Amino acid sequence: MFAPKILNYAGKKAEQYFKEKFEGFGPEQQSQTTPEGDVIIDTKESKKSNSSKKVGEYIDFEEID
């Protein structure tokens, strides 16, 4: 009898909790930090792949008829 009311209350509390918890994770407003018309380019550091790295042991198989 009280189950729907309890579930509704729990749902609202969970929603409120998550809104408070994740309030600051939205998209950043760059217009506030930089003047309009400025261009900002963010680059990631590139990792150089080392092709001389040994991955494993090479085994040469022969076919037996």
In short:
With 65 residues, this protein is mainly alpha-helical. Helices cover 35% and strands 0% of the residues.
Q: What does it look like?
A:
- It is a single chain.
- With 65 residues, the chain is mainly alpha-helical.
- Helix content is 35%, strand content 0%.
- It has 2 helices and no strands.
- It has helices at 3-21, 30-33.
- The chain starts with a helix and ends in a 32-residue tail after the last helix.
Secondary structure blueprint with pairings:
Blueprint: H1 3-21, H2 30-33
Low-confidence stretches: none
Taking the sheet with the most strands, its summary is: none
Shape: flat
Number of strands: 0
Q: Residue share in helices?
A: 25-40%
N-end to C-end Cα span: 77 Å
The string of secondary-structure elements, in order, is HH
- Give me the secondary-structure category: mainly alpha
- Any idea what the radius of gyration is? 29 Å
Please state roughly what percent of the residues sit in beta strands, choosing from under 5%, 5-15%, 15-25%, 25-35%, 35-45% or over 45%. Answer: under 5%
Give the helix tally: 2
Whole-number mean pLDDT: 78
